[in-house]
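quick one, 242 residues, struct below
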Amino acid sequence: MKGICCRTAAALVFAATLTACVLSTFQSPVASNDLPARVSAVGDPVAVITPLPDYVSNGSWYDLNGTSSYDTNGGLIKDWYWEISLGTTVETSHASLHRYLFKEVGLYKINLTVTDSQNQSNRSFTAVVAVLDKDGDNMPDWWELNYMETVNESGTGDFDSDGYTNLEEYARGTDPGELDPQPGFVDEMVDHWYVFVLAAAVIVGIILAIWPFLKRRRKVTEKKKIAAAIAIDRALEQEEHK
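---
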């Protein structure tokens, strides 16, 4: 009887030890520092940036839109925090919808952090490249947008129909939306100075080329005049002696 009791007690101790080992294996290590950072859980907010173009024209405005952000538990988003960086320059804003001007050429890094009513936060990121001449027409996009409110005009077009192409307007620094007077002689000389310089060089070259001939011809003419004058004098002397 005593042996049976001892065997029963040993079995119970073994079972208890085995149970403790199994439970310790599946227990969540809440206090461990090796846990990965929490990305999202039930009730967390989710930051959503409405897609932007990969490339934009510098000098153009776009809406940074975070209104599609939401809370996974149906809670409320209480703050939208934008960080827009270009190089070392950083601009910030607290708004669900932020109107932004890409005024310089370069890579813009855009972060949106949303926070809900439980002070839980989530971040989203995107990037946009602002370029000088997106349509490749040799006119900066900011200039086209400023004067013609579109980048769809070509350099060979004439936005105001004044006889100057849009590219000529840009080169001259004139407004392609205002009629410009046709150029006068002075303007023609300024715009086509090289033609006048070439023409003057050709004229000077011609004069230098024929100058020796003109000089010889002048000497021959002078000799003839002198010979004619001498002949007249002799004829007069002969008349006097008769």
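The beta strands are 45-46, 55-57, 60-65, 70-71, 77-86, 89-94, 97-102, 106-116, 121-131.
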